[in-house]
Amino acid sequence: QARSDPAPSPRSALSARSPPVGRALRARGATMTLFEGFVEALRRRAGRPGADDAIAFVEEHRANVQKALGIFTRSGHLANGQPIPASCYNDFYKFTMLPCMKAVERSLAPRDVRCTFSVNIRDDEFRKRLYDSAVGKGAPDLFDELKNGLRALQERPFDRDVFERCSEEYDVPGWSADVLDAVCGKVGAPRMLVQEFQADAGCSQPAAPSTPGAVLVQVFVAPDEKLKEPRVYVEATGPWHRVTWLETTLMQAVYEPLLRDRKRSESGAAKTADGRWDDSSWYAEWLAECFCRCVRSSATVRETGLRGGLMTGRRTGGPAVLLLQALYGQAKLRDAAGALLLLGTSSVWARYKLLDLGVPGDSVPRCMGTHAHELQMVMGALFGEIDDQAGIPLTQVLAHLVYFYASLPKGDVKAAGRKALMPMLTDTLGSRAFLTAAASIRVPTGPHEGEPFLNVIGAARQDSGGLDYFKQVMAEFGFTGALMASEIETPNDLFTARDCGYTLFGAGGFMGDSEKVWDTTQRNISMAVKVCRVYLGGELLERMPVKTGETSDQGQIKEGKFEADGTLSPERMASVRARAQVLATAEKKLDSASMQELVNQRLTQIMEVGM
Description:
By secondary structure, the chain is an alpha/beta fold. The protein has helices spanning 19-27, 34-44, 51-60, 62-69, 92-108, 124-135, 141-151, 160-169, 177-184, 240-243, 247-267, 283-304, 319-332, 348-356, 373-382, 385-390, 394-406, 431-438, 467-476, 491-500, 570-585, 592-610; strands at residues 113-121, 185-186, 189-190, 196-198, 216-224, 229-239, 307-310, 342-345, 423-425, 459-462, 482-485, 504-507, 527-536, 539-540.
């Protein structure tokens, strides 16, 4: 038989249903549900890699899968016009970092902390396609859909109940009623993610919200000094504790139109009579293919024996994927003895949505996460004078100490298992620079007073650079905790991590969304969102937030990984890059006692005033 119509697999009754049933479902056309279309698409793939196990899973967990997919249209959108809630594309680490943000903001009051996040589409082809659509060199559909999606964020409400449930279930400190009000809005009067939207064709530079406390999403076209070419900028600006919820949301809001544009082209999808795209013609097929990739990647995880987390919630084909990944991971990411290899999902929304749909608790993964470069980058802008004085990035250790005291660890990881609450993310300006600073600092107060800072870290997360290099640098500085590999792009990366001695992993696109994982001829839509500007009391700070990722063996910044504000002038960009290089090189200007004093002073200010 042809590959497009393989023989049914004997492994599953679902894949062997009689042809008349299949024909009847197809004949129903527009009346077919997403679940039914998904099942039919899996059946057509029977015998292909991952498909038989996918079919068997759906058969075994049919009720749960039906509940999950039953809330979506055949195009993958929420049914009945329901708005996507604010929690949908926000990771658990946002919930655990928020207490740190609020502590910093309070310590600097009455001056407010305002941040701007900017989308960086790294893929040249997709970046150009969006630019051409925006400036009239291509069809306007893609740019129009992007703007419509961003504009709709003004109608995306904070689901306060999810924020309350998450902070209570995981005992995240700092989520008082006042903080919930400030982030989510008062009970019965939810805030929207975005208050202002601007896409003025005549504007070519960043704007500020017109109302204090508001979050502005802005789209404009301007030159990028780093790329040396014009591009479309998609940015969000507002109070730190509010705009932070736009970071991964913005990424998804840009990624999904690009993905749907590509799939429409590949599938030959057409617009309906009212001028809208009919994605029902391809979405179930894509979802089935995505799920088969998830199944194959999960099998690789089982083979390595590594424990890890689903880092989902951005650069995905929609919320239906989040629910399917969560269900499959909880059921099938287990070792030969049945022990769970899945630490959890970063998607807070997926956990509580599945529970609300009536999926049994033991079939739903817990929330898990680490923390992000954002905390270090913002604090580096706010308190960067101590970096300049020391010659090394002390603010990165300061950010971790604020997390240690203000978030899940609560300043005490002595009890068994509590070190897992204290992760370490080291590559903002390169791991060697971070560890040079970390090795100079001791825990200043509490049960761990006087201990080396690295002693309270449970796991170090590798997020760029080589796996072996990261392990070597950790060993060089005496770190003996667990290592987590979180730059997993191919099956071989997992095996390499295991063979290098890593025991943990974090994977996002690898668990289904990335087409390149199992087909190297495909291209992924690569992008990132980083904080690019920080304002204090309305004034743009001189020290700009930057990220370099791992540096070269000689400590030099790799140009492809350097993240900074593209709207800077050539002279300003050169200055920002030069400062980042100094900190990445990490040549100490002070002794350890002097550096400890600098950190202690800023930490005391934050914790005593801000907590």
